[in-house]
Design a protein that fits this description.
The protein is an alpha+beta fold. It has a single domain, classed as 3-Layer(aba) Sandwich (Beta-lactamase). The protein is 32% helix and 17% strand. It has a 7-stranded antiparallel β-sheet with strand order 3-2-1-14-13-12-11, with helices on both faces. Helix 1 runs antiparallel to helix 10.
Length: 411
């Protein structure tokens, strides 16, 4: 009996050691893979997070936070994640819709406060849902950092903001859509946009970040660099974290909102973005805290433009990881590239953020980001490069064997 217990303990120890060894091997292989990517292609830094079975199992950062100071990138560094930010704005809208403060079928003119109609189709209402799914027929030709671009009273060329097709019948990705959506959040909630997101998404999830540069610890910002292909060098992009204190002094609720860039201005770390991703993967819930309803989460993840795979600030793609349909969003601005994608059925997801890398694309994704995502998937999810420890039990070494001879033969 004692020998049997000893054998059980030994077997458990070996099994635990095996799992630990396998996990270490996965991390080592993944890190070597990513370092190889960075050696083959110009990259300033990469911060990553891997989620498996609904939990964060790995985070790591590579390269530099700041080239000039030669400071290393760390997991708590904050990045302006660009267009992944749109999903925070869409999540906020879904919360307000659940509270009956608005409807996705509302005329966006009534929500924003001035007429928004495609002049070629003046009778066709442009709904909030159309704007959220980039089917509004709007474009960014007149800019998107101020609502003046589309306001007939402010811009004589406002009509150029509209494409030639009828709203709801075509797709064009448009940042102006989401800067308008930010103003709607203010008008319907009574809170300044950045404060609403903090109070209703970030704080409940215990995440550090936000849209207002001036309210964050700027020592944690990862400097963003744009790659100059002709000079083969990186140049810092200070505009990525430009302060807004002066603009805030003259802030007009429900109109000045684009200064926070609801379309691309969220600043957050890779591990915290992974927590936010898990919430969406779990249909709006994280560790018992519900941020949006299951129905709202489902709506966000349902494709409205099938060709583009786009829903409500969340898209679906089968071109990121071979054989997998992934749900999430990408981001690119000022030289930064980011990706947040998950598989809700298999409960895994990956976050990759680079504060500067070569801008080449493949299959619709930044090549460095795609390679890094697949490197992490292969090692931590698919286990293609992992080392598996097999514990072989001698046929006579069962837990019920009491024979001393049998026990000795297991040595």
């Amino acid at each position: 009996m004692i020998r049997s217990s000893v054998f059980k303990i030994a077997n458990i120890f070996l099994l635990c050691f095996g799992f630990l060894f396998q996990s270490t091997a996965q991390s080592t292989n993944a890190e070597e893979c990513i370092k190889n990517i960075m050696q083959q292609t110009p990259v300033v830094g990469l911060s990553v997070a891997v989620v498996k079975k609904g939990k964060i199992i790995y985070t790591h950062s590579f390269g530099n936070k700041n080239i000039e100071a030669n400071t290393p990138l760390t997991d708590d560094c904050l990045f302006r994640i660009a267009s992944i930010s749109k999903s925070f704005s869409a999540t906020s809208i879904m919360q307000l819709a659940e509270k009956k403060k608005l409807s996705l079928e509302d005329d966006i003119s009534n929500l924003v406060g001035f007429k928004i109609r495609n002049p070629k189709f003046p009778e066709t209402v442009i709904t909030l849902r159309m704007a959220m799914s980039h089917r509004s027929s709007l474009n960014d030709s007149q800019g998107y950092f101020t609502l003046d671009a589309i306001n007939p009273d402010k811009n004589k060329d406002w009509a150029k903001c509209y494409n030639s097709y009828e709203p709801g019948t075509g797709y064009q990705y448009c940042n102006l859509n989401y800067n308008m959506i930010g103003t709607i959040i203010e008008k319907k909630s009574g809170e300044r946009f950045d404060q609403y997101v903090k109070h209703h998404i970030l704080d409940p999830l215990k995440l550090y970040g936000g849209y207002c540069v001036d309210s964050l610890d700027n020592s944690r910002f990862a400097t963003i660099y744009e790659y100059n292909d002709s000079l083969k060098s990186f140049n810092a992009s200070p505009a990525a974290y430009a302060p807004r204190s002066e603009e805030i002094k003259n802030y007009t609720m429900g109109y000045s909102t684009p200064i926070f860039s609801p379309t691309g201005g969220m600043k957050i770390s890779a591990p915290d973005l992974a927590v936010y991703m898990i919430m969406h993967m779990n249909q709006g819930k994280y560790k018992g805290k519900r941020i949006i309803s299951k129905e709202s989460a489902k709506q966000m993840q349902t494709m409205l433009s099938v060709k583009e795979g786009y829903g409500l600030a969340i898209l679906k793609t089968d071109k990121l990881i071979t054989g997998k349909t992934m749900t999430g969003h990408t981001g690119s601005a000022y030289g930064l590239y980011s990706a947040m994608f998950f598989n809700p059925e298999e409960k895994f997801g990956i976050v990759v953020i680079s504060n500067g890398c070569h801008p080449a694309y493949t299959d619709g994704f930044n090549a460095v980001i795609k390679k890094t995502v697949n490197c992490l998937y292969d090692n931590f999810i698919a286990g293609k490069n992992s080392i598996t420890i097999l514990l072989h039990t001698h046929p006579t070494c069962s837990a019920t064997s009491q024979s001393p001879a049998a026990f000795r033969s297991c040595g």
